[in-house]
Amino acid sequence: PVASAPQADAMSGHTHRTTRKRGNAKQDGGSKSHDAGGGRKGVEEDPKTPPSKKGTTKDRWKSMRTRTISTVLMIGGFLGIIYMGHVYLAAMIVAIQMVMVNELFIFARKKAVSQEKEIPVSNLLQWYFFGVACFFVYGRFLNHNLMWTIREENLKKGAVGQVLLPMASWMLGHHGLCSYLLYITGFVLFTLSLKRGTLLYQFGQFAWTHMILFVVFTQSSFFVSNIFSGILWFLLPCAFVIINDIMAYLSGFFFGRTPLIDLSPKKTWEGFIGALISTMTISFFMSKWMAQHEWMICPREDLSSGWITCDPDPVFLPAEYPLPTVLVRSLSQLDGFVPQWLPRETVTMLPIQLHAVILAAFASIIAPFGGFFASGFKRAFKIKDFGDSIPGHGGLTDRMDCQCVMALFSYMYYHNFVNSGKDAVSNLLSAFMSLDQGEQFALFTELKKHMHGTGLCN
After folding, report:
1. Residues near 391 by beta carbon (within 8 Å), at least 6 away in sequence
2. Could you tell me which residues are beta bridge partners of residue 34?
3. How far apart are CA 273 and CA 378, in angstroms?
4. What pTM was estimated for this model as a whole?
5. Considering the chain, what percentage of its residues have pLDDT values greater than 70?
6. What is the C-alpha to C-alpha distance for residues 186 and 134, in angstroms, rounded to an integer?
7. Number of helices and strands (H, E) in the chain?
């Protein structure tokens, strides 16, 4: 019922008087509202009062403790795997890839759970294509790097080895054909699984699967090749990405003023530049220290896990580099003011130190865009993390976004500027081992004639 105007005015006046009385009671009864113990009496608690921050602080400490424990365990486990050797490091990369792919497969499916229940084969096909990708990528690596080792082992094994190793050898010898047949089988199975009413979902999952395998799995797989080229070529790029991330945070925390990119509001130009200088400086000395250990620099040419020794590659031996002419002239003119220990015409260093500075520059300038890409992707889908595989840190994919970019670049750089000549020999050996015995003997005869003709052998 609506009150009349006089009644409304009376009610309004009564309300104002009541408010004034409550206000006076709060002002005049201040001493009455507090006991000796400091408690409030007769006054209702304000519902707008913020809740106590004790719970928030407690949760924050709990989160920090969880992050610290998981970080220590990860670092300890990683160092242990490095000590175990190349094969175990490669197995670790494959395990990380499986976790990353699983996180992204779940992310791709979680917005269509009801349809996934209707098509249980969809999940199996995703993992089938992952297996095909593993065979294609790692089979290619074995074919180009360890094929001759597998053929030699074939002569040493017992009855089981004489059956399995020839089969593996044949599959690697026809690696391209086997990869295609495996993929086309998955393509046929996917086509047969199509159902009306869920076509859009199924083709969406097909696209997601290929995108995940291409962008995440394929790039990170090049770390395995880097490992067998020498643990240093795997560890340095990974370390530079981590160092750059830490130095960007510290530089931005103390000097950051200018925003760098909208996708990551906390990133600043000062942090970006500071991290670049710091990472390149650290890389120069860190690479020299790592080059002193055989376990880091020796390549692994088989699938064993024992201790390994080798003659250091020239890239790990000191070399003299001439200084620029302008700098030499400037130093000669300032000879009385320049310290005696400063080089005048040449400087001696390890070639790996120069390579490390270039890798560090890429890790500081280009690799962070892998993180920016992931940040934009997560913002587009309004999620914080890709998963929760690491307690307190989120998913493995969140930690590997920049590493995936770095893996491919370090592989390309190594095989183009450090190891280009040896790759040609490895490819020739791989092609030779794919021939049958008659073809191998014919090739040997032709090579022998050529070497006699050119005087390379008697």
Report:
1. 66, 67, 69, 70
2. 40
3. 25
4. 0.77
5. 77
6. 14
7. 19, 4
